[in-house]
Design brief:
With 364 residues, the protein is mainly α. Helix content is 62%, strand content 5%. It is built from 9 helices and 7 strands; from the N terminus they run αααααββββααααβββ. Strands 6-5-7 form a 3-stranded antiparallel beta sheet, with no helix packed on it. A two-stranded antiparallel ribbon has the order 1-2. A two-stranded antiparallel ribbon has the order 3-4. β5 and β6 form a beta hairpin. α7 packs antiparallel against α8.
Length: 364
Amino acid sequence: MGFTPQQYLALEWIARGSATLSFFGILAIFGFFIFNPQSARNPTARLIIFMAVGDGLSAFAKFLGRWPLNNGPDGAICQAQAAIMQEGDLSSLTWTAILAYNLLLVVFFKGRTDTVRRNEIPLAIFAFGWPLIFAIVPLFITGSAGKIYGDSNIWCWVKSDYPAYSIGMFYAVLWCVFLFNIVAYILVGRVIWNSHKDLTISTARVNPTLSRYRLAFARTALVYITAFLIVWTPSNLNRFYALATGSPLFIFSLLQTIMSPMRGFVNFLAYFWIYKTQQASKNGSEQSQSRSTGYKSSRPGGINRSGDTIYSPNSMSPMTDMPPYSIFDVDHHQRLPDIPMADATPSWDVRPTSPPPAAQGGRY
């Protein structure tokens, strides 16, 4: 049993309003990186750009609401709306998993933070390619209730007559990605937390670099997980209620209509809240260090120390800046510092500008 014409009309206009906000967020993301190209060098920024493309496809499809159904559920416009929505949603989910995967590579396998940048083309082919298969295949399948795509109550998508398709071709992917992201954040967070604790115990002092990583990680993970839950929980509730009862509930459909098209705007808010918070923390720390040491930063975003060079224990190569204030906020040529696990070796060393003694194999 469906809704009244007034309820359908309300859902349609709410979807358009939410999708419009999503367009605003996506355009703001693109505009920010166009006018601030240096900000697009860190891996999170590049992932957000790719994710915004998927969000844009999904927002466009959901902006149409139930209008494509005017030409019939089997019409080309309705079928195209469903396929575009499927492609946009699945590709956006894939990019969130790539972000978590890249984080695991960096922390556990000492991978470079520019993995995304160096492998953009293969990653883009994968992230946009496999969802395209899941989006196109249903166009050519006809079951006992007709085509797979059709009237799904709010817009054109997988019809309620085919619950196995909606779960197998979308919701199962959604749950797997969410579980993977949660596990990745927990594993990385555990390493950072334990490293900070072990180093503090062994040196009887708090390591400021690991403290910054610890805080930045907690803040970043919390924001992204919260955004994920806000956007996708209404869709899950609505789908499961409809599967369990055989009919949709208006309040769940309303919540889904509000949040699902708004994903681009939510991701925009999440990323720029993190960005602004990191910049404020960075500036405050630089000002505090400048007051305590008497040195002044010679350029934005870095502290140049007279007489000191910062070495990374990975290669003992000099780094011109202090460690990043976020585990994601690293220039494309840098590695994250080694995070001590079994021992309590400091992650970053400040040494005189003279090169490390060769006789000691490049380590102090």
